[in-house]
Amino acid sequence: MPLTPPALRDPAWPARLAWTVAALALLGPLAAGTEFRPWTLLEPRSLEVTGRFLRSFVPPALAPDFLALVARQTWRTVAIATAGMTLALALAVPLALASTRVLSLSALGGRMPAPPAVVRQALRALLVLLRSVPELVWALVFVRVVGLGPTAGVLAIALTYGGMLGKVYAEILESGELQPTQALLRNGSGRLQAFAYGLLPQNAAELTSYTVYRWECAIRSSVVLGFVGAGGLGQELDNSMKMFAGGEVLTMLGVFLGLVALADRASTALREALS
Description:
Layout: H1 13-33, H2 44-55, H3 64-99, H4 114-132, H5 135-146, H6 150-175, H7 179-186, H8 191-225, H9 233-242, H10 246-274
């Protein structure tokens, strides 16, 4: 019986087949549990509703007064995202530095003593708490506290993104070359000096790139937060949708797409400048 040429045999196919079967067995119950039925989009009634909804978008609203309103709300959206990120950085940087093991003097000897280890774990738990609560939930809470407006959006972005930034900053700092930082600490440098001269130079590009990416995400989040009364372009978009003003919705969606594209270009240019 002739043997199959080696080039036609795939020794990994049993493992691939097993993983494929396991994935299908897992995805089946998940699709059933979420009632995922995409074919309903192609039903005649669904197509009729979709077509009627899309036809209401034409023509776009281009009245001068409305465009001036959109321009003001767009600027407010960017301001919400930028102010929220600024507060998030003020929260994330100290928490990241305090929870980074390599910057701990008590960890130089090996095993960290119990009190500093407990403090470090408590700070890590605080970062988990901050990023576990979505910014939309924080916005709902702050709308109740401070009322409708951009303040709720700024605080919501600050807390959630503060937790995200602090967690990722700490991981980036601990994944780099640790010997220079440890040498500085052993020779009498303070934590901030060890960070500025040991960790920051080798991780500055990665830290900046992630920060700019999160600012871009904050712009998108600030639009979503407007739907719960946090101000900005999202709030005007919500008002127009409730009034079935499709032309206004189309105009604001176009502005939002342009805003995200500009943020993406700005972040790309900054990353290229730092690389």
